[in-house]
Amino acid sequence: MTRDEIREGLAEILDEVAGVDTADVEEGKSFTEDLDVDSLSMVEVVVAAEEKFGVKIPDDEVQNLKTVGDAVTFIEKHI
Amino acid sequence: MTRTDVVVTGLGATTPLGGDVASTWDGMLAGRSGVSALTQEWAASLPARIAGQLAEDPMTKIDRIQARRMDRSEQVAIIAAREAWADAGFGDPDESADRDVAVDPERLAVVVGSGIGGATTLLGQDDILEEKGPRRVSPHTIPMLMPNGPAAHVGLHLKARAGAHCPASACATGAEALAWALDLIRAGRADVVVAGGVEAVIHPLPMAAFASMRAMSTRNDEPERASRPWDKARDGFVLSEGAGIVVLERADHAAARGARVYARFAGAGMTSDGYDIVQPHPQGEGAIRAIKRALADADVAASDIGHVNAHATSTPVGDLAEVVALRASIGDGFALTSTKSMTGHLLGAAGAVESIASILAVYHSTVPPTINLEDPDEGLDLDVVTGAARKADLTAALNNSFGFGGHNAALVFTRA
């Protein structure tokens, strides 16, 4: 899976869970600052991403996933 | 000390008869039933397979993302509150400039309760827990199922900062919410209170549970004829979903901003039976005391009550017990109706939706009919409005609500 494909998958989840416009989901964007994803929605995003990509994202790892790019990198590595 | 006058300046509702107050009231005046067959697969094995389902899907009126973080009972609360808020002349809550002029948030309170709360969320998430494990349980579960959720969401939406409270007294909840709101204004703790009740539990478990109590109508082949208060062939209530919310306001606050006033909220009486957890007191002792308290609180004579919107849910015992209580407390000089014959039983929302019907009856001098009363039971020796709505010059109306647990609430509205 390419980085772009992972990012697009995340964009679908963000749209579904938090109403984020898929066009806004760029690697440099921060989940909380730029995309306005609150803490409870972030939990939903993580769980949905685990299911979609078949990875495990531990809770203590989530705080390091500040941007879309951070999440893409983590998923790419553990897929 | 003269007591603070409280008036009704805004109304909001979403019910099986319509998605707002106007369509709900029109439905009542036309004698239309909001009850229909449940066609969902899960309903097939239930003893009662009919319900009063919302005429308008709340999802069509609320932002998709907001909606998925709210229990259905919270969604209907927001829809009815928005309507009541705009109807009171406070404008769109999202346009903050409008509202800051009209009401000080620190003088704005919310009292919105429900009978059962976010049960469908609880049951839905329990299914997810069993099927997919704890990690898949939604992080929004608690704020969706907590009983104070509807009150908190309305408070958040309207930026109320004088308190958001949530009474729970089963089927008396909506009426108690209004009564507590009246007290808040009289006590000087708020100038405006957004008050009402909500319910949305059309789901197999509550449906099966009420049916186990033998409380529900099983007239599955004739849904529109199932809710038939005082009729000899009545066999239980019909479960409905919806919300009723009113804006209550200190009279001088309303006058200062030139608000349209529907009615005075003149008084309320709340009592508890202290008798049985589900059976009402056989002589309606608690109901009689609630009605008498409401009259005394309103400083209204029994003979001034020209209309009663009864609790009458279409159960064999309860309907006639209320007739006995009405006779004993206020006599027989009033036009009686049960709008539940059309809406079904809205549980925690019932008292609020029926208060709206009572308020509009006073405002429009019109009493909606009771439908399906084809063969009145013996003992119904009161003047029930049947067939069509009736014009009536009303100075005061009474709304009764009683709930499992022995809760009794009676509210008196008078012409403004």
Please tell me about this protein's structure:
The complex is a heterodimer of chains A (79) and B (416). Chain A has four helices and no strands. With 79 residues, chain A is mostly helical. In chain A, helix 1 packs across helix 2 and helix 1 (3-18) crosses helix 4. The longest helix of chain A has 16 residues, at 3-18. Chain A is globular, with a radius of gyration of 11 Å. Chain A starts with a helix and ends with a helix. The mean pLDDT of chain A is 96. With 416 residues, chain B is of the alpha/beta class. Chain B folds into two domains: 7-263, Thiolase/Chalcone synthase (Peroxisomal Thiolase, Chain A, domain 1, 3-Layer(aba) Sandwich); 268-414, Peroxisomal Thiolase, Chain A, domain 1 (3-Layer(aba) Sandwich), CATH 3.40.47. Chain B is 34% helix and 19% strand. Chain B has 14 helices and 14 strands. In chain B, the strands form three sheets. Chain B has a ten-stranded mixed sheet with strand order 5-4-6-7-1-8-14-13-9-10, with helices on both faces. The longest helix of chain B has 16 residues, at 72-87. The model of chain B has no long low-confidence stretch (mean pLDDT 96). The interface between A and B is small, with 9 and 10 residues.
